[in-house]
Design brief:
The chain is α/β, with parallel strands linked by helices. The protein is 41% helix and 22% strand. Strand 5, helix 3 and strand 6 form a beta-alpha-beta unit. It is globular.
């Protein structure tokens, strides 16, 4: 076990990818699977919230620009929910302005990575959690 924040957590094994783009879900799943992780996916913020509560993944990769519930809203909801607030979230988005990064972290994300995703950088960020 490793200490993350105040809670004790097992190392990351199961990752939930929340992204409305089938291509991005596929690319991220490939990177993560090859990195030795088990991956589940959700194609919307709403479905991501449901899956996060039922699966309780070790980590969530969150897109920002999605129809309906966007990634900022989903991140805020997950980080404030008693059941999911200890699941780390990495924002994974094409929105790469400094203000986007700051806003994502303020909503409860632990880290931020810009698309197109560099596989080595993503795996390094996950290993650093």
């Amino acid at each position: 076990m490793v200490e993350r924040g105040r809670e004790l957590h097992m190392p990351v094994k199961n990752i939930l990818v929340i992204d409305d783009s089938p291509t991005e879900r596929y690319v991220l799943s490939e990177i993560l699977t090859k990195g030795g992780y088990q991956v589940s996916v959700a194609e919307s913020g709403e479905k991501g919230l449901e899956k996060a509560k039922t699966d309780l993944p070790d980590l969530i990769l969150m897109d920002i620009v999605m129809p309906g519930l966007n990634g900022y809203q989903a991140t805020r909801t997950l980080s404030r929910d008693e059941m999911t607030r200890n699941i780390p979230i990495i924002v994974c988005t094409s929105k790469n302005q400094r203000t986007d990064r700051i806003w994502g972290l303020r909503q409860g994300a632990q880290d931020f990575i810009s698309k197109p995703v560099n596989g080595k950088e993503l795996l390094a960020k996950i290993a650093a959690l």
